């Protein structure tokens, strides 16, 4: 997820806007579906109490698959969400980018201890930034201290409110995004603290392209998408539409006012998110990807260990640590799960899985003003803590570890 300005806070939970749809079970036995009644209740409440236009979830356990929805894919037609619906996955893209780099490390083509300056000379410099003091590892675990370009006032002005509508189809290059970041001082000296910065993963994408001589889209496709058969997953580049089956994406344009109007933002340029958050996929494809990654089928042992060596996060999502493009989340029942989430205009998503990849769950909401953290955590606890009496509150504030308001996240 891309961190937004602290001045831009989540809107209050909206009133009920849609009637919840019944559960849909696809590709799973009736017994499997029955065991996910708790997940379905979370989905229903996300719509009836949380104000989501529509929400979907898919749970994968071994070869069994359960899929459920509530609300709608399209508020105009009333069409229901389906397992074939593609959506923008935001910062879940970061795990794909990190996986490509770690595969290159495993092939001996670069090292996690290489400096950014070695591969991208003269790119990270100015206002206290020094690419010669920042390693590839520090990019991937957000300990570089590099300023997050999405906190730049000019970029924020194009992502929030009317500014987004005026600029939603603009294209921007990775080099321009990094140049914007370099116009600000770093957050801290490399390796001395932690701060989520999308600039880290824009640089990671640039680095992968420099090492391979090919586009990141080509590398992700040939290394991950094709081998795993992720037929609904792709990097859109400069395309502003979503190809294939998809619902609509609804946004209040990151405006904190609960009464802010809702806009259809399905078509937009995601070049501003790039290798930090521009990809499109489905819940099924994302579960398949993380299942392969968590179980060790995409990385060699050393790189697998490196990816899952996590550092504590600072002033971020409660009960999380961060590996290399990978979030570790501790649930209220004590279970630790791994994955990533993403928030981009009109799309909130979250995927987590058991460390061995045997069980995965993905959630996507097609409205960006709801309580993503509360809904996603409730869904994950319904999946991974079913016998513990885990919380399933939506939109309220009984959980002590969830603040009443929190910075919105983008990508």
TrEMBL record:
Residues 40-351 form the Beta-lactamase-related domain. Residues 1-20 form the signal peptide. Keywords: Signal. The keyword Signal applies. It holds the Pfam family Beta-lactamase. Coiled coil: none annotated. The keyword Iron-sulfur does not apply. This is Beta-lactamase family protein. It comes from Streptomyces coryli.
């Amino acid at each position: 997820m891309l961190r937004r300005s602290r001045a831009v806070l989540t809107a209050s939970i909206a009133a009920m806007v849609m009637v919840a749809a019944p559960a849909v079970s696809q590709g799973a036995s009736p017994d499997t579906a029955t065991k996910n009644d708790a997940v379905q209740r979370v989905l229903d409440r996300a719509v009836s109490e949380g104000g989501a236009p529509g929400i979907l979830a898919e749970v994968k356990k071994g070869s069994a698959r359960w899929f459920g929805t509530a609300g709608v894919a399209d508020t105009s037609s009333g069409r229901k969400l389906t397992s074939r619906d593609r959506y923008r996955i935001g910062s879940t893209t970061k795990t794909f980018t990190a996986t490509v780099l770690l595969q290159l490390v495993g092939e001996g083509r670069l090292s996690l201890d290489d400096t950014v300056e070695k591969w991208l000379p003269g790119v990270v410099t100015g206002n206290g930034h020094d690419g010669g003091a920042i390693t590839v590892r520090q990019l991937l675990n957000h300990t570089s201290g590099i300023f997050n370009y999405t906190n730049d006032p000019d970029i924020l002005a194009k992502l929030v409110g009317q500014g987004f509508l005026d600029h939603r189809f603009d294209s921007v290059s990775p080099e321009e995004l990094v140049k914007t970041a370099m116009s600000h001082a770093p957050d801290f000296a490399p390796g001395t603290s932690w701060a989520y910065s999308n600039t880290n993963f824009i640089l990671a994408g640039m680095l992968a392209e420099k090492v391979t001589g090919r586009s990141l889209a080509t590398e992700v496709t040939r290394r991950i998408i094709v081998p795993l058969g992720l037929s609904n997953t792709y990097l859109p580049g400069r395309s502003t539409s979503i190809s294939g089956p998809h619902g609509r994406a609804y946004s209040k344009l990151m405006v904190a006012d609960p009464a802010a109007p809702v806009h259809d933002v399905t078509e937009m340029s995601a070049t501003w998110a790039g290798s930090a958050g521009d990809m499109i996929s489905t819940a099924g494809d994302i579960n398949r990807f993380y299942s392969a990654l968590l179980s060790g089928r995409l990385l060699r042992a050393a790189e697998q260990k490196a990816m899952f060596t996590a550092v504590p996060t600072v002033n971020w999502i409660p009960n999380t640590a961060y590996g290399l493009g990978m979030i570790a989340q501790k649930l209220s029942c004590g279970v630790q799960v791994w994955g990533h989430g993403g928030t981009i205009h009109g799309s909130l998503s979250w995927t987590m899985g058991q460390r061995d990849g045997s069980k995965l769950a993905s959630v996507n909401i097609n409205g960006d003003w709801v309580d993503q953290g509360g809904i996603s955590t409730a869904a994950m606890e319904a999946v991974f803590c079913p016998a513990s009496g885990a919380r399933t509150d939506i939109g309220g504030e009984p959980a002590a570890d969830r603040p009443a308001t929190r910075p919105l996240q983008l990508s």
